[in-house]
Amino acid sequence: MSTLITNIGELITNADVAGPARGAALVLDDGVVAWTGAAAGAPAADEVVDAAGRAVLPGFVDSHAHLVFAGERGAEFAARMAGQPYHAGGIAGTVAATRAAADEQLDANLRRLAAEMLAQGITTFECKSGYGLTVADEARSVALAGAVTPEVTYLGAHVVPPEYAGDIGGYVDLVRGPMLAACAPHARWVDVFCEAGAFGADEARAVLMAGQAAGLRPRIHANQLGYGPGVQVAVEVGAASADHCTYLSDADVEALAASSTVATLLPGVEFSTRQPYPDARRLVEAGVKVAIATDCNPGSCFTSSMPFCIALAVRDMHLTTSEAIWAATAGGARALRRDDVGHLGIGARADVIMLEAPSHAYLAYRPGVPQIAAVWRAGELAVDHLAGSA
Ligand code: NIG
Ligand code: FE
């Protein structure tokens, strides 16, 4: 089954050095991108979709999300808006609720959030454990996540759970020992929250290296709540991505620029915690590869909307609109070390967004307005608001 999308007002492929092409067309065939070019020269296909001048871009790649949890923390958000600071301690409340939840409840919540993401153009997403923090609860978290995405991250080192209070060494031994053994078969990535109040540099190294020895690839929560060693540890262990990067020294920026570690920015977190936004321009100008992700979680940022994050990244982190789109697509793919998604080059997975707008810039220009007209995932129409409108 092939689909020709024609009469595209603006086509962003991330594979075109000349930039977005107007009057373009795209052919999806057998789940992949088979052809792109000027609409006038498009080959025939089984079905034709008239984009009527709308913009088309790659599906969003969300490289950072925590979707396996129970409960909610709306009161904590309201307290922050009334002046309280965000602190990692709130995670314990979600851990208690998650441990108490039935598998079916966790699965239903996870699938509801995954459906929200798809409706907003996210066609690839990463999903972390980290609200179980026992061997059994982390193992079921990664198993549930693995049923909805291949990009599963083991985050046993999220915080030290209450039963290990005062014994961080004992908990790290659990995380890099029996918990890792139970989770590694279901995961692709290992992550650590490296932050004051969570885990220090030595603990982070120990967990990430044990994860690597078990076949997992490292990524890290770094420099979210203050300056610290997280980014340096990320670069040292060859992490695919250092996430948050809210507080970066010049040495951190230089280290990122000299590495293949992506800086994954999470603008929804700064919005939802009232922390200062990191300056993405500083990173781009230093040569750092930047991704944008939602960090959807019940504590620091409960949004599943990549369009919202793009608008914030443009308005408050000073990315251009096209840099923000790249960061939410190709940047996310790079943060997940994927070359089959995040672009619409020939042979890429046919993950495609059509906007109810003539240009990608509208995602920031019209913040908060639903503008996803259609989404194809691996060539299949998964979201369709086009019927009768073209
Ligand atoms: O990415 N920083 C650590 N983890 C999450 C927040 C988790 C929570 O508050 O429940 C984050 O912001
Ligand atoms: Fe996170």
Entry summary:
With 390 residues, the chain is of the alpha/beta class. Helix content is 35%, strand content 22%. The protein has 14 helices and 18 strands.
Which CATH architecture of the largest domain is right?
Answer: Alpha-Beta Barrel
- How many extended strands? 18
Number of domains: 2
Estimate the mean pLDDT confidence: 96
The name of the CATH topology of the largest domain is TIM Barrel
What's the helix count? 14
Radius of gyration equals 21 Å
Helix content: 25-40%
Poorly predicted tracts of residues: none
What is the CATH C-level name of the largest domain?
Alpha Beta
* CATH homologous superfamily designation of the largest domain: Metal-dependent hydrolases
Proportion of beta-strand residues: 15-25%
Global geometry: globular
Largest sheet: 9 strands, parallel
Describe this structure in words.
By secondary structure, this protein is an alpha/beta fold. It has two domains: 98 residues, Urease, subunit C, domain 1 (Roll), CATH 2.30.40.10; 276 residues, Metal-dependent hydrolases (TIM Barrel, Alpha-Beta Barrel). It contains 14 helices and 18 strands. α3 packs parallel to α4. The longest helix is centred in the first third of the chain and has 17 residues. The protein is globular. The site of fe (iii) ion has 5 residues, from loops.
